[in-house]
Description:
Layout: H1 4-15, H2 19-28, H3 35-59, H4 64-86, H5 97-103
Amino acid sequence: MKTVTEEGKTPAIVAYLTIIGTIIAYFMNNEHKNPFASFHIRQAFGIHVTFYVLGVLVGMFDSWLISSAFYIFIAVLGIYGLVTAIQGEQKEVPILGTYYQKWFSTIQ
């Protein structure tokens, strides 16, 4: 018998790949509502939303330094989330993870 973590691992990992992966993971998790997958879908969705919202603001600056820092920040969040999903852990991404769980609590 598979544990909740093992059952939700595939959608949790898929969620971090792209925004399309997050949407696919959401629908993969739609029928059985695995809490592990839901946690990681919320985290991944938050990272993607942050990327697009902050990307617009960062795009207003004509500075490679600001852009580089932005991309490194997003990459660190995404890699951290992906690694924790692969390891079967439910750790929030640094700085914003707690907010993602609150803001996107409707994603089950």
